[in-house]
Every structure is written in C-alpha cells, then in structure tokens.
Specification:
The structure is a single chain. By secondary structure, the chain is mainly α. The chain has ten helices and no strands. The chain is elongated. The mean pLDDT is 89.
C-alpha cells in the first residue's frame, strides 16, 4: 500500500461529518457515496474502506441524528418532578422542532431500510427514545396499554411533522403554529389535560 493509499484515521469521521452537512443542506436524496467522497476531497472509492455499503454510511449519518435527538430529549426532560403530561408536551414539542429544524436528517433517520438493516445498531439508539415516550405515557395513563398509546402518539407526531414540513397542515387548518395540533394530539391519546 502506498503512502497515498494508507487509511486516514480521521476519514471515517470526516465522511460522516460531510454526510451530516450534506443532508442538512440538500436532504437525504443527496447522500450518494460519490457526492460525499467528492465533498470530503477523496476518491469515490475511499468511503468503501470504512463503509463497505452505502447503507452503512447512511446508518452512520442517521446515528448522528438519533444522538442529536437524544440530547434534545434529555435536555427537555431535566425536570423529573414535572407532571408526566407536562413532560410529554415538552417532549412532543422538542420532537417536532427537531423534525422541522432538521428535515433532511429526520427523513433519513426514519428510513425503514436503515432501521431494519441493523447496521450500526440504530435500533439500539432509536428504541430507548421510544422507551422514554412509553414510560411517560404509562405514568400519564396507567390504565392503558402504554406501548400502544405511545406508538399511536408517535405516529401522530410523525404525521404532524411531515405534514407541517410540507406546508399541508398550515394550508388545511389555517394554523401558523403547530403547538395547538400538539395539544390536540395529546388530548386525543391521553384524554383531556385536566387532572393528568
């Protein structure tokens, strides 16, 4: 192996960094191996030294997104004494803000093929976040199947994020803020706020 062909110990990180920047600027569709390599200033074959498949590189980029979301969720739930409903409201708002502030990353993170593939154990990062939601739902509504209610609530939040990001909800509802939709989703899944 010549000097120029030796693996760069920082190249793996640099490729992921470039991918994170690229998804932020141009969306998930721009994440090709060739484009990431070009922006990293390496040959189009160089990423394969660290990421044998495109799916593995996408998984590494998505993992960064789950880590960022996890940090945001942790920061949101610092007041452990707050009522579960209040924590769910904060969590829902943080989730929606993340989705809207990082639309390309959000789209990438929830690609089924990435989560299903098991590359970089993305489920080990994403499922604990769902576990936080299940725990809060269980504390807010101990009389229900918390996992099912949390799944329905998450699906509702995901739908709000997608439709708000596309401008569809603003058009349909005339709303200029997603927070009333969040409150309505929480009411639908948890019951009216009074007493919870």
């Amino acid at each position: 192996m010549s000097e120029s062909e030796k693996p760069d110990p920082d190249l793996r990180t640099r490729l992921v960094d470039v991918g994170v920047d690229l998804v932020a600027l141009e969306g998930a569709g721009a994440l090709t191996l060739r484009e990431i390599a070009r922006r990293a200033g390496v040959s189009h074959g160089a990423p394969r030294r660290y990421f044998p498949t495109h799916l593995e590189l996408l998984s590494a980029i998505a993992r960064r997104g789950f880590t960022q979301l996890g940090v945001r969720v942790t920061a949101t739930l610092t007041d452990g004494d707050a009522a579960p409903r209040a924590q769910l409201t904060e969590l829902g708002q943080a989730y929606l803000e993340f989705a809207l502030d990082h639309a390309g990353m959000y789209e990438l993170m929830f690609r089924h093929d990435l989560l299903e593939s098991g590359h970089l154990r993305l489920r080990d990062t994403s499922l604990p976040l769902f576990g936080v939601l299940v725990d809060l739902v269980d504390r807010a509504r101990p009389d229900t199947d918390a996992r099912a209610v949390a799944g329905a609530l998450w699906a509702n939040l995901h739908g709000i994020a997608q439709l708000w990001g596309w401008g569809s909800l603003q058009l349909a509802t005339g709303a200029d803020d997603f927070r009333p939709l969040l409150r309505t989703a929480l009411d639908a899944h948890l019951g009216p706020e009074g007493g919870r």
